[in-house]
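Below is a filled-in request sheet from our internal design queue. Each sheet records the structural input a requester submitted and the sequence that came back. We keep these sheets so that new team members can see what a complete request looks like end to end.

REQUESTER: design group, bay 2
PRIORITY: normal
MODE: inverse folding
CHAIN LENGTH: 321
BACKBONE (tokenized):
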């Protein structure tokens, strides 16, 4: 009888455990990757001993045709010709030998690392569900990661070439978490202004820093161009004055100075909006956790950004971390 009771007890425990597991929510799905970065490598290897024109035709047929929204010229709305695009593809072919082995390693590492970083991101944001497929490409020098909205559809894209050039062999956890947050995050704002971009990029950087507290500025994308943080801090008062005066701007030149590498004519560092946005998100994070910050919708975001900018303008020195 004792043995029967023990067996019954074990069986009941196993049944309870099984029922508990069945009651658990299913694991969050991973990101489905459309790998075109490998396709570039394969096309190069088929044409390494031929010529740039031969590679261009091969690449267009074997890779670009699988993602015409990104590789085609229609998205440039007449600002780029097919001949110019072909020249860009040829330039990528000519430059590839110096990048080849590092690029190959990056492609192999991406396949291994993405599921790990996605899983750690989903621990911080359990309700994350990928909005769509992730396109892993040779970006022809355009991007390391981010989104592109083409004909009303948003594509989530990682560029193996620029990941290789910018990140090298460094720890990419911060980069992956930054970009995964962009795929997760939405403010519901119908129109893009400086304050919306400041919040989107700043909050993604703040999330990345919070999830990777020992990461360097370079690993958090805050050292491109070099010394971005220190150069911005040297002119922090003026940087915030300019920012405050342009929060409502939709001017492309203002946006470029704040968020793109080419900078502007203010004498302030290019891409400083990433660091200024990080400081704004960090200020907002003093009274809210990451999940609350991520859930803020458009009207509340505007209020939070304006209030944080005003508080930060009153402080002449802000520490980097």
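RETURNED SEQUENCE:
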């Amino acid at each position: 009888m004792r043995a029967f009771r023990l067996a019954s007890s074990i069986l009941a425990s196993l049944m309870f455990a099984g029922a508990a597991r069945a009651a658990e929510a299913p694991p969050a799905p991973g990101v489905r990757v459309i790998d075109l970065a490998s396709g570039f490598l394969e096309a190069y290897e088929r044409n390494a001993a031929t010529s740039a024109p031969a590679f261009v035709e091969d690449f267009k047929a074997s890779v670009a045709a699988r993602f015409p929204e990104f590789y085609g010229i229609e998205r440039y709305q007449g600002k780029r010709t097919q001949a110019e695009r072909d020249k860009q593809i040829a330039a990528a072919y000519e430059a590839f030998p110096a990048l080849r082995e590092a690029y190959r390693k990056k492609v192999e590492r991406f396949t291994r690392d993405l599921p790990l970083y996605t899983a750690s991101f989903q621990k911080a944001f359990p309700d994350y569900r990928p909005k769509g497929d992730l396109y892993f490409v040779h970006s022809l020098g355009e991007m390391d990661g981010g989104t592109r909205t083409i004909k009303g559809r948003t594509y989530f894209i990682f560029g193996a070439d620029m990941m290789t050039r910018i990140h090298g062999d460094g720890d990419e956890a911060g980069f992956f978490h930054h970009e995964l947050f962009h795929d997760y995050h939405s403010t519901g704002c119908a129109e893009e202004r400086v304050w919306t971009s400041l919040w989107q990029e700043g909050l993604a950087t703040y999330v990345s820093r919070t999830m990777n507290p020992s990461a360097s500025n370079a690993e958090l994308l805050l050292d491109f161009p070099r010394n971005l943080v220190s150069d911005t801090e040297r002119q922090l008062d003026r940087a915030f004055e300019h920012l405050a005066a342009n929060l409502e701007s939709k001017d492309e030149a203002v946006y470029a100075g704040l968020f793109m590498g080419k900078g502007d004519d203010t004498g302030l560092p290019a891409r400083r909006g990433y660091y200024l946005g990080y400081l704004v998100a960090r200020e907002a994070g003093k009274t809210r956790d990451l999940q609350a910050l991520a859930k803020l919708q458009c009207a509340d975001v505007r209020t939070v950004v304006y209030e944080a900018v005003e508080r930060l303008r009153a402080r002449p020195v802000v520490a980097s971390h």
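SHEET NOTES:
- The chain has 14 helices and four strands.
- The first helix runs from residue 2 to 23.
FILED BY: M.R.
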